[in-house]
Design a protein that fits this description.
By secondary structure, chain A is an all-alpha fold. Helix content of chain A is 67%, strand content 0%. Classes of the chains: A mainly alpha, B alpha+beta.
Amino acid sequence: MNNSLPRLIDGMVATLRKEVIPHIEGEFARGQAFGVIYMLNSLKLRASWSNEFLVEQLRALEEASRDLEGLGLDIAGAPVPDARTPEQAPTSAQLEATRDKGNERICALIDWLVAHRGAISAETAAHADATIDRYLNRQLKWELSTSAKPMFVEISSGAERSA
Amino acid sequence: MSTPSDAARAFEDPAVLRVRLADYLSGQTGAPVAVESLVKFPAGFSWITYGVRLAGFPQAQNVILRIGPPYGLFAPYSAMPEFESLSALQTSSVPIPKAFLASDDASILGAPFFLCERVEGGTPLPWGAQEGASLEGARRDSIARDFIDALAALHTFDWRRTPLAKWGDGITEENAALHQLEFWQGRFERWTMRPHPMAHRAFAWLRRQPPKASRVAIVHGDYRLGNFLERNDRITAILDWELVHLGDPIEDLGWAFLPQYRGGARLVCGLASEEDFLSRYEARAGEKVDRGALRFYVVFSLLKLALTHMAAARCFEDGLFNDMRMPAMATQIAPVFRQIAKILEHTP
């Protein structure tokens, strides 16, 4: 891929909007195309080239770097690459699994607090509740700030929303 | 004639569906019935709806055929709750289509289905700003009166004198809210694809303060702008009874009061102010609406909406169909959770 992901998405959205949708017959089919645009806009705010894709490129670069470094004084002064792959580069799947595991514990804690409310002090319960609420709000605000503008009028009507 | 092997997914092939429907109706009426036309309606996330023109069917020429596909939003389906409730309500003043026939036997059309009268009228939609804006003045007031009166008529209908009495086993004023919480908890567990602490938080809040219902009534389950037909400023039919059940009538008010159905206006379902809505409803239903119960059911309704969005995500993820409205709906889980969080901030 030689273009940035956001620019690729902008280009796909513009093409669908200006070149494709006006020629689609049928309200439902146009609505589906607007659905594709909406999901592309949503991806743009959260996606990037995957770690797995970039790490493999770095591994290749590292292999070449080490090989060339081995030439040592034979190519003294040459601009030899010195790339290294980060040892602890988590994949997006690993990050997602870590987040889900953490959220699973938060869910279990919420349920535990309900079941044990009588056995802990009111102050402790309030502290735990407040911490959980702060956490939930922070997560929700982040999700909302990385969400595309809804397009439900376009998706349900198959027509551009008038400004 | 169609063959038994045609039954599988017959509802997806209009040519096969026409033959199988004609066969079925001929068998039911004991005389030849022909399907003259079959038109699929584009709206709806759940049941597939066809407008059907029949010849030889004694009850009507134009009917609606509703089919619950195995991949629908709330699948697996049964046609019976909608059919039985519409049948029971024929004697009420709630405007509804006449229910004709129904079956859950998938060997007939490939999925549960029912047939009802085709009622004339258009559908104002909550998410089309232009439609919402067109509900103004005397037209809006007239529709609002019908909308509120129909809800009060539904909630005061004596279901115990109808075959729906069999639905009432174990549902009381005391446990109606908890009964529904259990039902939606089960759906949450079925639909969720990852842990959602906000859903746990909301369920915990709701379980702490379930209200006692003033009565056990028929609850429509999806009573809102977009689920009725209107003609000449009057509601001609209340539609989409797939979530009908017995419970606390305030549950329907909580759903109708959701911000999502206000069409960009401050009015409940784009029709009436909260005060006017409650005042007319109370006069028609003959009892006060407990404001605490209403707040409970608004939060519960938001949770149900978030869970419905999870169902959409699950439907799409399972790959049974590729309707782009499903992932689009799924993006609304967080905004709905945020609305719940804001209410809980003020009513811990």
